[in-house]
Amino acid sequence: MIPISDPSLKGNYAIHQYLYPEYHDTVGLAITVYKESYPLLYKAANSTTESVSDDDTDTITLFNKADYKISNDGKTLSYGKVKISLE
Hints:
Order of helices and strands: EEEEHEEE
Structural class: mainly beta
Strand content: over 45%
Largest sheet: 4 strands, antiparallel
Oligomer: single chain
């Protein structure tokens, strides 16, 4: 799990992510968001699986490096074109 830190977040979050091959020219990006419900106790809040073309190297590189961006309102995490709600 990767802890998420950003001053715009209300609460503590962590993510679990993995990449897997799909069809001949796509990969799947799977992300699960966990929110802290008690100190050191996290519960799954949201998850998504997105298919991404092998040609979308920006999104895949950001995902592999866990280089996410948090929206200004603190409600969305994104890796390039792939977005997931933190709610």
